[in-house]
Amino acid sequence: MRRDTSPDFIEALARGLDVVRGFEPGKPTMTLSEVAAKADLARPTARRILITLEALGYVRSDDTGFSLTPRVLELGMAYIGSRTLWELAEPHLRDLVARTNESCSIAQLDGSDIVYVARVAVPKLVTLSVTIGTRFPAVQTSLGKVLLAALNANELSEVLATPSRSGIVPRWIPERDELDEVLRDVRAKGWAATDQELALGIRSVAAPIRNGEGRTIAAVNVNAHAAETSIEHLVEHHLPPLLRTASAISADWAAWEARPIAVRA
User: Fold this and answer.
1) How far is CA 178 from the centre of its chain?
2) pLDDT tens for residues 22-61?
3) What are 124-160's pLDDT values in tens digits?
4) Which of 196, 219, 227, 264 has its CA 20 to 30 A from that of 18?
5) Distance between CA atoms of 87 and 100, rounded to whole angstroms?
6) Phi and psi for 22 in degrees, rounded to 5?
């Protein structure tokens, strides 16, 4: 029975994708009967699809049955290669905003400042306006603390010696010993929080985004108004989905970096 009555719907293609999706974790090899049952197809139909996929290099067969080949990865890489990194991150940010009902952003380090490179905002009154390209002093932001904590001692000294270009005078200006202690705590926990250190009314919590080598290359945060959200609420309710989001974006980042050269071009 056709699943779509549109004259433009190609049922054979849909069945082929059903076969590919039928190979699940823990079941890398399946017999013809298992493939047919998994895809809800007649054995002759499943056999023709498998033979076609094998001819195209997406399936291999042996005495034990049929299995997918690494060439199937090209299908996912085509999607990854056709989008920019921040386009890949945006759905994760939107999901995080839906879960927290707070604005969420991604930033990278530029000298002693952070620069916002992706953001999904909710309409709330905030002390400081933030858009893509906005820069703030890194030390006083949760995003910045995460990024600074990833630097070694020499890199950190070099960054801190660079004057901020944000034009903002923060409320909290720590001595180096105090900052070092804060960053040690961030490294130990794997996330950072701020409580009105940049400006009144702003609280946030942030987590690192890492590449395939485990290096921190950006940070993602949840930003809240101090009059509405306590630090305890940020950590207890917003941090868990934030950490999952950071992990998901990191996985996409690693896949984006690993895409084949041909796809990058």
Assistant:
1) 31
2) 887 777 899 999 999 989 999 999 999 999 999 998 899 9
3) 655 566 778 888 999 999 999 999 999 999 999 999 9
4) 264
5) 21
6) -70, -20
Measured between alpha carbons, how far is 178 from 215 in angstroms, rounded to an integer?
25
For residues 179, 185, 189, 195, the Cα torsion angle rounded to the nearest 10 degrees is -50
Structure tokens at 181: 């202690």
Cβ neighbours around 45 below 10 Å, total? 14
Q: Are 263 and 81 in contact (CB under 8 A)?
A: yes
How many CB atoms sit inside 10 A of residue 60's CB?
14
Pairwise CA distance, residues 111 & 159, whole Å: 5
The reported pLDDT for the residue numbered 123 is 76
Handedness of CA 255, 256, 258, 262 (dihedral sign): positive
Q: What are the φ and ψ backbone dihedral angles of 148, each rounded to 5 degrees?
A: -70, -35
**What gap in Å lies between CA 224 and CA 35, rounded to an integer?**
50
Element (H, E) at 53: helix 43-56
Across the beta sheet with 135-137, the strand order is: 135-137, 113-120, 103-110, 216-225, 202-210, 192-195
